[in-house]
What does this fold into?
Amino acid sequence: MLSLQADNTITPNSEARWDNAVTYQSTNLSGVTGKAIYANGPLNIALLYQTRQNVYPTGFHNPARARTSTRTTSVAATTSRSSK
It folds into this structure.
């Protein structure tokens, strides 16, 4: 089932939060954060890493005409566990 609230299933106190679920949100470790949720059912795991360099706000004086560069690497894995 897909919905507009799908990303909020991991957010505490959200209307879309799954019943009987446990959520963990990591601390910020050098710009890397993580979220995990487990409910009685399939277990899904995803990882995203993003680096941004030379990002300037709009209107910033940039005489060297430096460019913005973004590198993104994402890895996702899904594992299912059936309960009997």
